[in-house]
Model the fold of this input.
Amino acid sequence: MERYRIRRLRVALLAVTAASGLLLTGCSGTDDGGSNASDRSGSGLAPAPRGEQHTTPGDSREEATSPDYLSTFALDVDTASYGYARRTLADGRLPDPSTVRPEEFVNSFRQDYDRPDGNGFTVTVDGARTTEDDWSLVRVGLATRGAEDADDRPPAALTFVIDISGSMGEPGRLDLAKDSLDTMTDQLRDDDSVAIVTFSDEAERVLPMTRLDGHRDDVHDAIDSLEPTDSTNLGAGVETGYETAEDGLRDGATNRVVLISDALANTGDTDSETILERIASERREHGITLFGVGVGSDYGDELMEELADKGDGHTAYVSDDEDARKVFVEQLPRNIDLTARDAKAQVAFDPETVREFRLVGYDDRKVADDDFRDDSVDGGEVGPGHTVTALYAVRTKEGADGHLATASVRWLDPETRDPHEESGQLETDALDTSVHRASSRFQVTALAACFADTLRSTDGDRTSLPGCAPLSELSEQARDLARTTEDEDVSHLADAIGEARRLRD
Done:
């Protein structure tokens, strides 16, 4: 089998590409150097989680490293980075660049992609010109089927692992989680099950896996009993949580651990690798997925993301009642089901028309090109009602005309584990429109990416993404788009850009 042959893109073209030795622009990466959070205390930056190293993303267009025209990555529906950035900006601080993941900014906004009728994905590929010569933005959009009514989904077995350490006593942490869980409990079905584990200096199983039918009051009583106590033994919480989920495992149900924490481990096993090993083994053996919900102004963003990635799940960040309602009351009950496992995307750019390209973000989700069709290689888990967007900066050749790119997505059926693929094509004539005349959703995507890129820059408004305006213009664009779309989320984006502008001035 010609394993890496993308539809209609000849293998011969790839061979010519490898022989040509053309240098392409790579994604902006991270490195291990840098200063600790304490070194930035006077900079106005929100500190990265304790123990992390800071990075200073540079201009990715100066890092030409990719020897081919393929780009492969695992799908990601995380949004925590954007939520945490909004929180830190509202607190009067700039987020540390190392906590800004552009793909999570982009994927925080509603899209208008067509959806499939059944499991799997539709693939939408479009693009628009930037203000820089020969540079365009190409958007690859993947969408799953719409979320089903609650009565049509499989039952859920949810194990809530709740941080009750002393820091969770601050307003907007444990109190917010308790109110949200109480409301969510009333939204779940009678045939759903809930277990509750808490952790501080030790972990405790507060409620074993319990069917809600006739037992909702028991769940509410367990939630109401939660009070903040001592330090944060995250390792013990994760271990007991997965043991509880395994004990309450239900065939034919969605078995998921929901971790609610500021992810600042300071007691017991604080080594992320050891904690991750436990998650990986339980995920592989029992198919238990993890949903990480971050809270708190001082938040272990990197650890929570690593836990969710290893646990075949995703993350969100909750800072207020509105966020909590979206995550616990709307998203979690509606999207309990999975429509795709180990989903990966691969985009093949045509060397006849493309001079160079780079993927915006997804730094931690890269997959070797050769592993696209290796179904033993971990990808991302995606549920109904989700969209995944990847944005590329693409520099076309002078006079380019014809095929530009083929985008493919591969996933495993969540029940049979059978592999499936879908593809979409893009031609150069799709780039005739400028970004500012593109659809409103495309403009929101570009705006979110530019905002993230600006926050990652330590050199004022200098960004690595072609055609990005300074914060003052981004703020105006966001306000215009908020009026055009009548989208409250876009209004929040405009507010965040305005806060960043004030802090940078």
The CA atoms of residues 371 and 377 lie 7 Å apart. Confidence is low (pLDDT under 50) at residues 1-67.
